[in-house]
Amino acid sequence: MSTDQKGPRILARTFYTQLRASGYTPQQVIGIATELLDLVADDMKAGDKGEVTQVTPEQAAGWQPRV
After folding, report:
1. How many CB atoms within 10 Å of residue 66?
2. What is the pLDDT of residue 40?
3. Is the pTM of this model over 0.85?
4. What's the CA gap between 23 and 29, in Å, rounded?
């Protein structure tokens, strides 16, 4: 595995481990992953506009996973 592939893999494993240690269920982790993919897709749709999806603290506090 190249160095370019190791960084994201280590980050993903660390993120997953932290989520599970914090009490998130596998279904909730899937919901979080889905939300992350949605955010990436939104950024890709924005293209070169340089727009970044912003989430307010209020939105983050009210976040509920899609199940």
Report:
1. 10
2. 92
3. no
4. 10
